[in-house]
Design brief:
heterodimer, A: 284 residues, alpha/beta, Rossmann fold, 10 helices, globular, B: 271 residues, 2 domains
Chain lengths: 284, 271
Amino acid sequence: MKKMIESKNLVFEYIRRDEEGNVDGIIRAVDGVTLDIQPGDFVAILGHNGSGKSTIAKQINAILEPTEGYLYVDGKDVSDHDKLWEVRQTAGMVFQNPDNQIIASVVEEDVAFGPENLGVPTEDIWVRVEEALRAVGMLEYRTHSPNKLSGGQKQRVAIAGIMAMKPKCIVLDEPTAMLDPNGRKEVIKTLHELNAKENVTVLLITHYMDEVIGADRVIVMDEGKIVMQGTPREVFSQVEKLKSYRLDVPQVTELAWELKKAGMPLPNGILTVEEFTEALKQCQ
Amino acid sequence: MIRDITIGQYYPADSVLHRLDPRVKLVGTLTFLISLFLFNNLIGYVIAGLFLATMIKISKVPFSFIVRGLKTIVILMLFTVVFNLFLTDGTVLWQWKFIKITIEGIQTAIFMALRLTFLIIGSSLMTLTTTPNQLTDGLETGLAPLKKLHFPVHEISMMMSIALRFIPILLEETDKIMKAQQARGADFEEGKLMERVKALVPMLVPLFVSAFHRANDLAMAMEARCYRGGEGRTRMKPLKYSKRDGMAYLCLVAYLVVLVATTRLWMLFVA
């Protein structure tokens, strides 16, 4: 099967220049990352600020070009300038600030922005806009102004805007960082639905642990490198290692881990409250 | 003061004028504005006034709402009236030392005031019945022939629509910054003019910085959604002329013909 996202020894360097334009310093934001994401996967990338996770996202969308190594999105090389628009259509990108990525003053016109750019015929645009808005549960707001929506709703409109371009993969760069807890839940639920129903590959970049639990695979990054990889359970079993990368684990996991350290016979990597109560019952 | 400006505001209502193609309204308004300079006698003002009154009636926008837009030009209007009233030569009606009022003066003063009123009402009627989006769409398609002269029609209309989208966001941000600065002791309301202007600096600097950040983010989001200029773009809501629009054009031509013919005849026979 063809891989959705594939990279080998990916490197990206930000070059800092002084006022005369001489190279002042080089920052390696991404340092030898090898990725392998299959179609239909829900992958979460975790990392502290400055761990290079956002840089990877921008490379997948061909906004930044790799300094070294290669990166293929659905078999297309992101460094190939002729394939630039194909790459961007295949891997849609949702950004952090919901206000700064909505272009039109009416919800449905904003969702139509992508298909309009692709040159989709007018009748098809209407169909796509309706489908995309229904998929994210925002159909009833189609004629509203984005300014009147909540943060979570705006972010769902932004996701619909990407879905209307019929991508195979969505990359989300901290889509919930500016939202309240309800908005965050809304967005994550929408993503899981899209992943299950439309079979879209989801690459979720975040630093909220709770959002990672439902993912098929978690990748932990630190200082531009992949330091941990596996299912959420595998990753969250290693509480101490995670803490060394300045990351927290979900609250329940932490509590279970502390109890276990204190001598309770609990299993490793408890992720949800239900699991925890079940395990506690067995202890008694 | 800002609330009084009705030019550029949209008044939602369901009327024939609201449903017209924006291009018709643009051409119509432009024609009407130009037509105001085609005559200089009473009958012309009567015809233009009647035409405008009919349009207001059709538009279903309350007259009081339209008149509010005139408040902003009261001073300009006073100036024109006063200058025309006292500085026009002709048959003297009343004189005190060097100040004099002439019959011609009164006439031009009234005509100028009327012309200004018609200009303002005419153009605000267009914005009152057209949403900003339709207006930019209308401009883009209406000015499309200029593309051959390398005039960036699409870019300008895209900039206009983005500006419209961000006006409320930036207003909100201004409010936030003002409150944040006030919480730290900034004073925007007191002091002399110069002091007040200076007090605006700590508000404008963060506003500009954040506007540039937003612009940067937006540009990236647009590129990520495959935006590459107007070339090869399709539209979700393309503008299409309907029968109604044809009728509107006919009415416009009829108005022009009637106006020009009557004012010319009036000049021949009456004056």
